[in-house]
Structures are given as structure tokens and as C-alpha cells.
Hints:
single chain, alpha/beta, Rossmann fold, seven-stranded parallel sheet, 16% strand
Amino acid sequence: xxxxxxxxxxxxxxxxxxxxxxxxxxxxxxxxxxxxxxxxxxxxxxxxxxxxxxxxxxxxxxxxxxxxxxxxxxxxxxxxxxxxxxxxxxxxxxxxxxxxxxxxxxxxxxxxxxxxxxxxxxxxxxxxxxxxxxxxxxxxxxxxxxxxxxxxxxxxxxxxxxxxxxxxxxxxxxxxxxxxxxxxxxxxxxxxxxxxxxxxxxxxxxxxxxxxxxxxxxxxxxxxxxxxxxxxxxxxxxxxxxxxxxxxxxxxxxxxxxxxxxxxxxxxxxxxxxxxxxxxxxxxxxxxxxxxxxxxxxxxxxxxxxxxxxxxxxxxxxxxxxxxxxxxxxxxxxxxxxxxxxxxxxxxxxxxxxxxxxxxxxxxxxxxxxxxxxxxxxxxxxxxxxxxxxx
Length: 391
């Protein structure tokens, strides 16, 4: 089968969740099928040559389409007046639409695959069997942002939430297969038949993310794209509310905030106890040189890849119920959770004081990820669905 894959970003480097999910799904699907990859490039800052080298072994054709910034405002305004989500306009271009249709006519794929609702406009009217990967419940994520936003942005996020909610509902009936990352997100898609959306979880590359013997440079680490709002919120929550409670009992505890493009609010957290690394060439070093991983997520949806990676490297993990609802690790055996700053600080102090518990939880978490989150196992149901509906 020949599959045309449309992405909203070039899936390399793998510093964002949607890129990671796309890269490994393409890799697994390419074992049995031909992949025609088309990736939009809205910021035009990707190293396209390096990305092509990484993707070419898995694709018959690799195509990158730059989205010109000069037309972006026009496209956003058109979406505004059409009642569509603004991000739909941000990622839409008539020139890109023509190129995508030309590629589809040239390669005659058996199946179309759109990752994220922001790419769906390009494929909805093409009469070929198609899959939409909602990935997350974007509309609900926007609602959370509206709830926490300041006065000036609150109305913008509320409007975008309502529009995205209507958009997600409309797209449901225009794609043959709908997939999503977790049961938690599936329940939040605003459609009466959302229970028919197929849950396709993420996986982790355990050949790459595996235990490494390194000197522990800090006791605690949090990783992620540090310009992504849920991660920025989590970093601020960790540094300003959780860690002060830890420092009351263990004043020498060190924290590493590691990840690409740190927001200025994250950079401002750096001091003698908190290191803000920015981009790290090999993120495994951030995990391996730390004793405990914490992901104090208060917003955002979906499965947190960072937790899978830390567990695969045998780093004991702490998170919130929000994040563990998707992960489904066993509380007090494979993970510790807490809803408040006090609960999360207590979990950190418990592990900091108990080396034996850290080791036990790390081993249990490693086994949990190995059993449940391999990319081949996670992607197999998607491959089966696409093959059956396209026959």
C-alpha cells in the first residue's frame, strides 16, 4: 500500500511530541508500505538537508513545503472571517494546497494520513480513504489555556477553543479513520461517536533510550520543549512552588530544566540551584545524570513522551494525575503522583530519602514501558486499520 503522510512540521529533530510520533510511525509503517511524506515548514528554520537524510531511508519520496510568512496574516484573517480556528489559517496556504494535490496526483496513494487537525483542510475533499490523527484533544487544551490566561488573551483563547471544538467535530465525519493518543483525549473530542476513535498510543525507542551509567550531576530533572506553554507552566510551578518546599528540608538539592528553546520565563529561573540547559544534543545525558525525573503537568493533553523516555532509562518518575491518566502506570509501584505542590514536594522528598525505593520504582517503570510502549506494538493497530479500509 502507498500512504501519503501530511505533517504540519518537518519531523526532525525530535524535540517535539508530534515530530517524534510522526517519525516513528513512518519508520514502522515503512516496513510494509511505501511512504510519500509531505511536511509543511511554517517557520522555515529547519535543517532540511539533515532532516531529509534521516527520513529518506523510510520514504519513497520526501517533500518539504515552506509556508511564506508574507501570506500568513492574510490566511489567518481569512480563517477568522470564515469561522475557522486561527491555527488552521496559520498552517494553510493555497500554494501549498496546489503542491499537495500535485503530489497526490503524481503518486496515486492508496491512503491519506493527516497528522493533527491543522493539516486536515488540505485533504478533506480528496476522494481517497483517509486517516486523521487528532493526537490530542486540542480544543480542550485551548480551554485550559483560556482558563489560565490573563485578561487580554482570555477572550482570544476562548474564541479559538470554540472554533477548534466545532472544527474537530466537523472533521470527524470527513475522515474514514480517526485516531488519538489516549482514552483520556478521546473522551474530550466533541462528537457523539467519539468512542469509535481508535486509541494509538505513543511508544519509546528502547534501543536508543536505555540505562546509561553516568555521574549524577543533579538530583532532579524536568525535560521538554521549554517554549511549549504546558511545559513552561510546569517549569514555573516546579521552580517556584514545589522546589522551595524541598529546599526547606534539603537545601542543596539541584534541579535541571532541559529542553529546546527555553522561554524567557524559564531562562529567568536559572540560579545556583537551578540549571536551564537549553538544547542538548543528546537528551539522554539529561536523564542519565539525574536521580529523579518529575513532570508536574497542570495543562496539556496526551501521553507525555518524556515520562516514557525517563522510565526506559530507569529513572524513577513523579508526575500529576493529569499526565498519568494517559500513561496508566501503577501508583506507588511504577510512579508517584501528586496534584498539589505539597504532594509533589513530598513525593520528591520521599524518593530523595529512599535509595532503595528509587531503585525499585526505576526497575518497575522500566518493565512497565517495555511491556506496553514499544513503537511497533503501538503502531500495529493503525497499520491494520489502514490496510483493511484501503483494500
